[in-house]
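Entry 14. Two folds queued back to back today. First construct below, sequence then structure tokens.
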Amino acid sequence: MQMISAVTQVGQGITCLQAANPSPMTASGTNTYLVQGPTGAVVIDPGPDLDDHLHAILAACAGQQLEAILVTHAHLDHSALAPRLAARTGAPVLGFGRVTEGRSARMQALAEAGLTDGGEGLDHGFVPDIRIEGGQILCFGGLQLEVLATPGHLSGHLSFATDATVFTGDHVMGWSTSLISPPEGDMATYMASLRSLQGRHWHRFLPGHGPEISAPAVRLRELIAHREAREAAVLTALRNGPASPKTLTAKIYTQTPPALLAAAERNILAHLIDLHDRNQVITRTPLGPQTLFELI
């Protein structure tokens, strides 16, 4: 029987319900947040399609009208439960759009040329009732939430801010770095999104997996430095000659558990595509997982 692993109050009017879907990619499970206002509530990331998780959310909402279901991005571990929760509560589902919406022209061209995702659980059936984008202010149940555009992990990834707290989905996490898997993931936009968050003062981040981040500015610096170090490692490895993403992954991710190497390889591909677009590496064949990359 599926069980909810944790229901925790993480702030005034904010409850975190952790789904029972632990894995190497989800830590101890997906965090669903119930944010309660004076006259109603919203759910952020309803999570995976699990009966017990649905029942836990409904129980947490008891006695208060659920006015909206907000989805940071269309991965099955975040969005799959949205249709059933909407059907039970009548609340509309809000998100950026279908899973492929928001791609940069570069990623769209790569997709049309045959580049496919790495099988990371895209929710191809996700269609929001209401399409939202960065810069909007949502008002539900006496709450105000600002929509922040944070593409990169997925092209349509959103975060939601209330006061100085940000619900960051998979964009910023404390337990791990984010997977960037082209063509849905885009390293250039991911780095830009991290830097855009640096432009404001935040009190804490509540991520889609793992514990809250109490020092957002520190974590943002760490993530940017980590990606810059990975990029430098890729360029250093290419000094030995042309190499594929798989070969580079084996050289760079020497301490990574085998279960995570496929994801690491997609991250390396994302770095290589970004470096290619910035004219730091070249290829002799179309870009893809088996392409040989070399320094200019």
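Second construct, same run, same settings:
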Amino acid sequence: MAKEKMKRRQFLKKVAGSAAAAVIIPCFVPAGALGKAGSVAASNRLVMGCIGVGGKRPGGQGTVDLEGFLGRDEVQVVAVCDVDAVHRGWACDIVNQKYSNKDCAAYNDFRELLARDDIDAVSIVVPDHWHALCAVAAARAGKDIFCQKPLAYTIAEGRAICDAVRRYGTVWQTGNSLRSQRNARYICELVRNGRIGRVHTVKVGLHDVNHIGGNGDRISDVETPTAVPKGLDYDMWLGPAPWAAYSPGRCHWNFRWVSDYSGGQITDWAGHYCDIAQWGMGTERTGPVEIEGKGVFPDRPLYDTVEHYKYTCKYAEGFKMIVAGHLEGGIRFEGSDGWLFVDYQKMDAHDKSLLNSTIGPDEIHLYESNDHKGNFLDCIKSRSEAVSPPEIAQRSVSVGHLGVIAITLGQKLKWDPAAERFTNSDQANKMLSRPMRSPWHL
């Protein structure tokens, strides 16, 4: 008897949307039901491909995310994609070693990976200027998406991602894993439930030149043009960015300090710490209404993103957010009755007893996720919104983009978060998007 073929994600959508279904057959069969405790049959695994598998070195973020999904029994990684043959090679080795086989597919062009009907979901770990092109194409291809922060290279490209995810019914998780750490959620709940009174100021310390993770963390400072290394598809690496001669200090990890590819440390870290700041203030789906600040732009031919910066965002809700590179890395909420602080490593408060405060059943409880990749996989099965959907990630990195624009223009800017437009500067509105080099376009 002929069997109708249905992609796993389509099956899940059908099941999740059927209120009349008396019996729901799980897509992921429990291992015990198969008689193989601790494992899931290959036929019932979520099939994934990984776009961007390099990083600063083997063990960089692309590799970290690849290994993170490989460690899940319910996932089967079948393909990797990277414009650097060295990256593709070590990624394939990792995958093949995991499954004790030799059939991991390797692609130079992400579009070839997305064309595979057997792939249900993808992880995307590419330079910022590539996020929107890869993500929109993946959503259009019907893939669920785990994409590293920041959401996008520009505010306009971030909006394109949000629109595509909504249009195609894609499950999306942004890779800002602080949202799945108990400490960050707990501090935000304390703030939301009034433990420090009315919050008037939020101080967000990002990373600057002399911080760990700052500009001193480059893998190369060689800005002089040299020959393109064998195995690197440099034209594809540039993609929509303006053409520029290759130099060792330009590509891979170093892209974040070049304005043709990133907004620098501000947009790199806004997706983490500005995100939690807005979560605590309940403004994660809106944004500031006024932005002004100052910073220093290096007098170098390549590394030109802003350093030594400080800017202030004012919100219609009645508080201000100060974002600066010299502040302690993390988020400090200052209220009428005290302060609370959180970063990746610790929590702190003016009164340490607050850190043992119980959030009552009738108080505000935020979305609970204690496993960022696990939350993504769970939401694929349930077809529900993940803890860091694109709309929230868009608002988080927008705080970074707005700061960069205000510092660049050297003027106080008025912002309409609903329209995502400046109300007092045509010049600033022109900076909400960037032209793409032909033939690339959204």
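Quick look at the second one. Residues 179-367+390-430 form a domain with the Dihydrodipicolinate Reductase; domain 2 fold (CATH 3.30.360.10). The first strand starts at residue 46 and ends at 51.
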